[in-house]
Amino acid sequence: MARLKDKYYQEIRKELMKELKLENIMEVPRMEKVVLNSGVGEASKDKKFLDRAMEEIAMIAGQRPIVRQAKKSIASFKIRKGMPVGLQVTLRNYRMYEFIDRFISIVLPRIRDFKGLARKKFDGAGNYTYALQDQLVFPEMKFDDVKENRGMSITFVTSAETDEAAELLLKKFGLPIV
Predict the structure, then answer these.
(1) How far is CA 115 from the centre of its chain?
(2) Which helix (H) or strand (E) holds 151?
C-alpha cells in the first residue's frame, strides 16, 4: 500500500476529525483524485509534438493521457474544432498517493527558487491547482531527451467542502502551503 495512504488512514484522518470538530469519520475530507493537464496547442503544426508530449506525460503520471480536443474553432489561434489542444491524466487511489508522495518529496525540492505553494490557488470548493512551468523537475525526465519545455497544471481534488478544510488536509500530507 502507498505510504501516504497508510499515513492518511492511521494518523491524518483522526487528527482532522479532532481539529475540524467532526462527529462522523465519513465527514473527514479525503483526496479524491489528482488531475494533470498540459496544453499541446502546437500539435496542430507538428504531429510529432503530440506524440512526444504524450510520452512525457505518461512517464510522469504512470498512465497514458487522453487527448483533449478543441470544442470550437478559433481563427486567431488557427485552431479548428476537433484538433488536439491538450492532454489530461486523472490519477486515483494507489497511483494518486504515489504521485503525491513523489511530488512532495522529490519534485518540489527540485523547483528553482521555491518558497512554498500559494494559498490563493484554492478554487472555493476545496480543490487546489498548482501550475508547473517545466516538466524537467520530475526525475523520470531525461534532460537530453526533452526537445521543448512544457508546463502543466496539477489539480488536487478533495472531498472537503471548504478551502480551509482542504488546506488542512493538504498540509497534513506535507504540501508546503504558505
Answers:
(1) 18
(2) none
Would 25 be classed as within a structural domain? Answer: no
Secondary structure class of 145 (helix, strand, coil): coil
Does any domain span residue 117? Answer: yes
Provide the domain count of the chain.
1
CATH number at residue 11: 3.30.1440.10
Q: Is the pLDDT of residue 91 over 90?
A: yes
CA-CA distance, 132 to 2, in Å (whole number)? 24
Residue, of 1 and 156, whose pLDDT is higher:
156
Segment among 10-24, 55-69, 70-84, 122-136 with least mean pLDDT: 70-84
Distance in angstroms (rounded) separating the CA atoms of residues 46 and 36: 22
